[in-house]
Specification:
By secondary structure, this protein is an alpha+beta fold. Helices cover 34% and strands 26% of the residues. The chain contains 8 helices and 10 strands. The protein has helices at 2-8, 22-26, 57-62, 69-77, 88-102, 112-119, 165-179, 193-200; strands spanning 12-18, 31-32, 52-56, 82-85, 126-133, 136-145, 150-158, 184-186, 206-208, 210-215. A hairpin with a 4-residue loop joins strand 6 and strand 7.
Amino acid sequence: MHFFRKDFNVPVILKNVGLEEVAGLKNYGFSEYTSDEFWNEDCKYDDQTFPQRIFKIEDLLALKGHKYASLRRKLRRCVDIETRLYSNEHDFKYVRQLLQKQDEHMAGEVYASQRLFLSLPQTENTTSLVFLYNTRIVGFSLLDRISSKCAGLNGLIYDSSIRELSAHIVFESVSSAFTSGYSYINLQGSEYPGLDFWKRMFNPEISIEKIHLIYR
């Protein structure tokens, strides 16, 4: 790390560090951001600015009790949606169009990282789903194995003109994870308070905070 810093004359940022790891890494010369440092002015720790939210699948699918009242209402409002496995050969261009529409700042480009998760094969570790309304693809999600008990839900892409579609996609993706034998789902961290508020609607059982460290 020292040689990298010396050769390129730029600070090195280590992302997504667990709070329990901070003290040990400081012994190797890392430090936390100062008050005027950040990954982005609007989201200090990028997509870990707000904690990772982890949910117990069995409780979420049961939808019982007052704490799930808001989610139950959202699911009832959504139109009938068909769910099936994603095919890179047949579905890529349609999901890409959704992604471009959802992220207009991309100006018609699909970045390499996004092309990567759209091209991942269906394996025991990854499951990609598409969601259709009247035979038209209106959503995409990717389930990625974290452990034998927990899957991460990534790549949530959807047509925002369809009411409550995002909640429906999460619920159906969680159901798919349960069928695959997982007990927990990780909706990951968030950049912004609004996104974190939306994720907390699903009632997380565990929250994990991560930060960035910098080597100057």
